[in-house]
Amino acid sequence: DLKIAGKTDKGRNIRLLKVAAVIKKPEKKFLISARNHANESSGSYCVEGMMHWLLSEDPLALYALSRHEFYFIPMSNPDGVADGMARHTGDKLTDLNKTEQWHRDNCPAALSDSTLKVYTGLLDSIQPTHFMNLHSYLFKFQDELYVRTAEEAERFFRFIPDQIKYGKVWKTRIHDHQPFPTGYCHEKYDTFPLLPEIPWFGRNAAAMRETGAGLLRAFILMNTVGAANWGDIW
User: Fold this and answer.
1) 13 forms bridges with which residues in the sheet?
2) Band of the pLDDT at 22, cuts 50, 70, 90?
3) Exposed, middle or buried by CB within 10 Å (0-12, 13-18, 19+), for 32?
4) How far apart are the first and last CA of the chain?
5) Other C-beta atoms lying within 10 Å of the C-beta of residue 141
C-alpha cells in the first residue's frame, strides 16, 4: 500500500509504504525510516532489501506478516536528496534528526518546514510499537547501534552478528534518551527504539540490500528472546 503522506517545502512527495496482511488488530506496528540526512543513502537500499524480504516466501516473513503491520519511509528528506544536502532538508537548516526544542533554540525558521511537519505527523498517526531509524556514518570498519541498554544490543547482535565478510564489527552506543525521532516516539508512545548506522565502505548495492533484510529479521527476532513461548513476538 503506497500513500503520499504529504509534500516537502519544494512540493516533492513524501511517501509512506505499508506492508501488511488483512489483520483485524495487528499485535505490533513496525516503522522503518531512512534518509533523515540526505547524504546517508545506504538507508534507502536497506529499506529496499527489507521490503523484498518481507514480501518473500521466507517463513519468518510470512509469520511476521500474519501478526504485524510494517510501515516504511524510504526517503524522509527528498528535498535534501534532490538538492545535494548533507544533514538538512533545505535553506531553513531543518534537521530531521533533531527535536523541536533544538530547532526552536538553534534554527527557529526550521519549525515552519513542511517536511518536518509531515514527518512528525506520520509518527503521530502511526504510533509505532517498534521503530528503526537508519543512518550511515562514514566509518570504514564498523557499524554502529544506538540502543537504550546493553541487554538490548546483545539480543539484537544474537541475530545479526559482526558482518566480517564486509569488514565490519559492531560498535554499541548506549543512550537512555535517544535522539529525535526514535526518542520522540519512545517518550510519547512507549515505542521500542533502534538506530543503526550502516556505512557503505566495503558494501555494494546488493550487499546493502542483504544487510537491510538482515536488520529487519534481527529486529523481529530480538523480541522473541525471553518470551514465554518461543513462537511469540512481543
Assistant:
1) 7
2) confident
3) buried
4) 25
5) 12
The whole-angstrom distance between residue 157's C-alpha and the CA centroid of its chain comes to: 17
Q: Report how far residue 141's alpha carbon sits from residue 166's, in angstroms, rounded to the nearest whole number.
A: 8
What pLDDT, on a 0 to 100 scale, did the predictor assign at position 157? 96
Q: Are strands 169-174 and 130-133 parallel, antiparallel or unpaired?
A: unpaired
Backbone φ and ψ for 172, nearest 5 degrees, come out as -100, 135
Tell me the CA distances in angstroms from 156 to 34, 60, 111, 170, one per residue in order: 19, 16, 35, 11
> SS3 of 5, please?
strand
Q: Is the pLDDT of residue 230 over 90?
A: no
What does the alpha-carbon distance between residue 45 and residue 233 come to, in Å, rounded to a whole number? 26
Read off the pTM.
0.93
Instruction: Kindly report, residue by residue over 40-90, the tens digit of the pLDDT.
Output: 999 999 999 999 999 999 999 999 999 999 999 999 999 999 999 999 999
Cell numbers of 143, please? 557499524
Please report, for residues 33, 72, 117, 139, 191, the alpha-carbon distance to residue 124 in angstroms, rounded to integers and kept in the order given. Answer: 14, 14, 11, 32, 11
Residue 17 has phi, psi (to 5 degrees) of -110, 135
Q: CA 104, 185, 221 angle in degrees (round to 5)?
A: 145
226 pLDDT band (50/70/90 cuts)? low
Q: Which parts of 20-168 are beta strand (E)?
A: 28-33, 68-73, 130-133, 142-147
Extract the C-alpha cell encoding 59.
Answer: 517463513
- φ, ψ for residue 198, nearest 5 deg: -120, 100
